[in-house]
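In this section we walk through a basic example: taking a raw amino acid sequence and producing a predicted 3D structure, encoded as discrete structure tokens. The instruction is simple. Fold the sequence below.
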Amino acid sequence: MIRINLLPPEKRPRISTLRLNLGVLVLAVVVFGGTILLTHLWVSEQVKDLARIHQAREAENAALMVEVGWVRRMENEMKAIQDRIEVIKEIRGIQSLPVRYVDALISVLPEERIWFETFDLDKNGVLQVKGVAMDNQSFAAYVEILRTSAFVRGVITERTLRREVQGLTLVEFHCLVMFGPPPAEYYQQKADHG
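The resulting token sequence is shown next.
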């Protein structure tokens, strides 16, 4: 049997699928927009923090550059002072050399065999010596001893001749003694021994 319902259909509240889809779409847009907004706010805050850190680092860098400049000026001044000290040491070393040259000449002199009449030291460290010796052997022995000095660079005998002095026959000599600063090993040996 067939039944036919002639009654009007029941009215039920129906949400149309279009409205439902529209609601879901709006909700998704709101959630997505909120997520984007929150992400934007978070990233903006991170950028602000990084900008503050960058400014602090820039200020610190500027302060350090001032310090670096001051340190470099001090280094340059220290180098200039060190250079001046080296020049002063060199000058002081050179100033005492003439005294050392004469000391090297006199300290090995056999006083009872050789006598100086004159000696003249020029600025190049060459000493002209004129004097008398008891004999040629005394003069030759003195020259050999003199050549062993750390300050003596060479001895050139210009002439020797016999001369009568107060009834004695002596040997008159004229020689050049070339002096110079001793090698660095001389100072090292002096430092090691005393």
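Looking at the output, two observations stand out. Residues 147 and 154 are 6 Å apart (CA to CA). Helices lie at 17-107, 136-147, 184-193. In the next section we compare this with other chains.
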